[in-house]
Every structure is written in C-alpha cells, then in structure tokens.
Amino acid sequence: LVVVTLSEGGRQLKARGSGLRSGDHVDVLVRPEYVELTSGTTDGGLAGRVVERTFLGTGNRYLVDVAGREITVRTPHRPQADFLAVGENVQVAWQSQDAVALPRQN
Q1: What's the number of CA atoms in the CB half-sphere (13 Å) around residue 106?
Q2: What is the per-residue pLDDT for 41?
Q3: Nearest alpha carbon to residue 31 among 44, 16, 10
Q4: Which residues contact 102 (CB under 8 A, 6 or more apart)?
Q5: Residue 50's Cα: distance from chain center in Å?
Q6: What would the pLDDT profile of 41-90 be if each residue is shown by its tens digit?
C-alpha cells in the first residue's frame, strides 16, 4: 500500500499503487459499491454532503460532495435502512485494499 496525502486538508489515505514516487500527483479510484456512507460527522472518513439520491430498485445511488469533488456511492437496498437525505452531512469511507492510486494524467 502507498500513503496518499490529500491536497485539501492534508489528510492521509492508504491505497494500492506501484511505480509511484514521493511527491507524485495521483488520482485515487474506488468502485462506487465499495464506498461506505454513514450519517453525521466522525473522524473515520472524509466529510461530505449528499447532493443527490436516486433509487435504483436494487439499491440507491448517492452523489456526495467532498471538498468540491463529486463522489458516486452505490448502496444495496435494505428494507429496514433509513435513506440519507439530500443535504445531509455524511462520512465517506472505504477499505484501503479497495482503493487504487494511479498517476494523474495532465
């Protein structure tokens, strides 16, 4: 795993990556179904705000604004689960092994 320092706030994340050098600019990619959303604010993830929710039948697709960047999250349908509302503050998180750091293409 490599350690990635975010340009917004200096927070550090771990991701899979190879051939990277210290100081390289990278994009961190995570499949939408591997991202976890939790309501509220904690220290366990990146703070965001739900900007859109779409019911897909088998689940929901959320668009979340995190530091001015839009992140797509897919969650499975759970009959007893509460939906996250548009405008709600959330935490966005994932497992390090599910993230891949790739060199940024200019």
Answers
A1: 2
A2: 67
A3: 16
A4: 17, 26, 27, 29
A5: 12
A6: 666 678 899 999 998 888 889 999 998 889 899 888 777 667 889 999 99
Q: Determine whether 64 is exposed, middle or buried from the number of CB atoms within 10 Å of its CB (0-12, 13-18, 19+).
A: buried
- Rounded distance, CA 21 to CA 31, Å? 24
DSSP, residue by residue, 28-88: EEE-GGG-EEEES--SSSEEEEEEEEEE-SSEEEEEEEETTEEEEEEEE--TTSPPPPTT-
Enumerate residues 6+ apart whose C-beta is below 8 A from 31: 98
State pTM to two decimals.
0.77
CA nearest to 91, candidates 32, 24, 44: 44
CA dist., res. 30 & res. 89, Å (int)? 20
Amino acid identity at 30: V
